[in-house]
UniProtKB/TrEMBL annotation:
Keyword check for Metal-binding: no
Superkingdom: Bacteria
HTH araC/xylS-type domain residues: 190-288
Protein species of origin: Aporhodopirellula rubra
Protein name: AraC-like DNA-binding protein/quercetin dioxygenase-like cupin family protein
Amino acid sequence: MPESIRVLRKSQFFHPDGFPIVVTRRDPQEPFGLHSHEFWEIVIITGGSGLHVTGDDSYELAAGDAFVIGGSRPHDYQNLDDLRLINVLFDNNELPWGLGDLSEMPGYHALFTLEPAFRQRHRFDSRLRLDPMDLAYAIEQIERLEHELDERAAGFRVQAFAMMMQLVTFLARCYDRCRSPRSQGLLEVADAIAHIEIHYPDVITLDQLIQISNMSRRNFLRTFETVMGDSPIQYLIRLRIRKACERLRTSQKSITEIAMDVGFSDSNYFSRKFRDVIGVSPREYKRMYREVPPVTGVDMGLDDGSD
């Protein structure tokens, strides 16, 4: 009879105020059993050894291993020999992943999207292995995050989000920096994704992306669509439309100018695709987000200094 899978709930680990980041320590990790989560987690192995079990597969763990577990993926730790680890739990839907240029980093896509999805195919060989100095720095960053979450002083939400993004960026840089045969395959796909994120206003062809990935056409398309849920060209179109939405909310430019700015050479084609993705026309979307006139001191009931 197959082992039942225990589901860990957010309510068991997250603070009652609903903040979507938690730090937990397993020092050492005790036997727990096969389980999945309602949340995601970054796992940093800080010492000892053991086996990471996912379904029928198991992978050896040692200090410095760092990986991401998606909420629905069952896993367990077995053959524990003083295995020590830190978990950074997070609600994947509540973090500001679109912040800054994070999406332009191949290591981010490899660590948080590709490696979790293809762990079985790569037999965990594509995981990140931090050297002692990087491991110490990662632990230091997590300790500062943990202090903010423990104290919960005024402004802790801003600080904790910033520290979480710093940790994610650091781990992504480490993954990108330590390119090795075990991770190269994922990073080549991640390079193509990052190329789209950086050069979305430019002409991008499927042949260019295949060349960047250094993969066969068939393998690249299968891998990309499996992980991203879209073909590369559809992903590009959705990204351009997302960027157009940002401009429609804030820019005074015309719809045609915005379409050109984000990479569409035909404003009619842009409008059709925009409606397909967003559900309304660019003009209707812009009207929905038209800026509200600023409230004056008189409107607020304040004395404007006049008689």
